[in-house]
Write a structure and sequence with these properties.
Elements lengths: L2 H15 L6 E8 L2 E5 L5 E4 L6 H5 L22 E3 L10 H10 L4 E5 L3 H6 L7 E4 L4 E4 L2 E7 L16 E7 L2 E5 L7 H7 L6 E5 L5 H5 L8 H11 L3 E5 L11 H11 L4 E2 L7 E5 L1
Parallel strand pairs: 3-4, 4-5, 5-6, 10-11, 11-12, 12-13
Antiparallel strand pairs: 1-2, 1-14, 2-3, 7-8, 8-9, 9-10
Length: 282
């Protein structure tokens, strides 16, 4: 076994082997907006995994991954819940979803109601699909989470008013974790998020521009907006994401570090590489 495969195999084992204490959270970065969190109860929640090169397979003219996945989807045997923010392939990856569903046969998939049919077409049984909509609060197995509407350049809904793009504020074993999904900043989002005491926030920083729009790439807040956003919502630890997987949708994270240093030297933040684990203690 080569070192890369050994590292991949060990990652899930390392997550399983970590005994998370009270008022703590194990955060494992999976690349792009993919992340795993584990709380005191031992339950493991995954978000927006993209662990294949499916985008390149579907469109050979698109950019390949800039780095290999830190773990193979078939090796994720410890997933209790799998949260999906929207239907774009780097967030709802058919290859990863199918493989994780097999490796973790009891895993429940949390997904915007507008995209339930995608999971069904991938062979995910109805009993394993938990549909959600923006503006609602849900509780599964004692895990409370709020679903927020995301403005991925624009708001978008289906004919029944179900939002295409969402973010999640999740309370896992007393720790509040915010996964922003793909979004711009807007006033109602600030007001909603700052009403919670966010321990750790996972926020995109890749931005947007005319040229990316011209190739149908919807954008997010940029690094400057992300800094002002976290100042507005008062998070404990800020974790930037969604800036390095594809060459055509890239942002230099050092710009964020420099700008944050200028604006607020007291704000805690964590830059993470794929496969890195961060043990958060409140």
């Amino acid at each position: 076994m080569d070192m890369q495969n050994k590292t991949r195999t060990n990652l899930v084992q390392q997550i399983d082997g970590c005994n998370v204490q009270k008022n703590s959270l194990l955060i494992t970065h999976m690349g792009q907006e993919g992340v795993a969190i584990k709380g005191e109860s031992g339950r493991v929640l995954y978000f927006d995994l993209y662990l294949s090169d499916y985008v390149k397979e579907v469109d050979p003219e698109s950019c390949p991954r800039n780095f290999p996945p830190p773990v193979l989807p078939a090796e994720i045997s410890n997933a209790n819940y799998y949260f999906i923010t929207h239907h774009h392939l780097d967030h709802l990856d058919p290859v990863t979803v199918k493989e994780v569903s097999k490796a973790s046969p009891k895993c429940i998939f949390v997904i915007p109601k507008a995209h339930v049919s995608i999971l069904k077409n991938l062979g995910i049984n109805d009993s394993r699909i938990f549909p959600v909509n923006a503006g609602k609060v849900y509780i599964i197995d004692g895990i409370k989470f709020h679903v927020l509407a995301c403005k991925h350049e624009e708001f978008e809904t289906d004919s029944d008013g179900n939002h295409f793009y969402v973010g999640y504020i999740v309370y896992l074993d007393g720790i509040c974790f915010y996964h922003a999904g793909d979004t711009l900043v807007y006033s109602e989002l600030i007001n909603e998020v700052k009403s919670h005491q966010i321990d750790a926030a996972y926020i995109p920083i890749n931005g947007r521009d005319y040229f990316r729009n011209e190739i149908d790439l919807l954008g997010n807040m940029n690094y400057r907006e992300a800094v002002h956003f976290i100042q507005s919502i008062h998070v404990n630890v800020f974790i930037p994401c969604h800036y390095d997987l594809f060459e055509h949708n890239y942002e230099n994270p050092s710009y964020l570090v420099d700008y944050l240093y200028q604006k607020d030297r007291t704000q805690k933040f964590k830059m993470m590489v794929p496969g890195e684990k961060y043990y958060y203690v409140r």
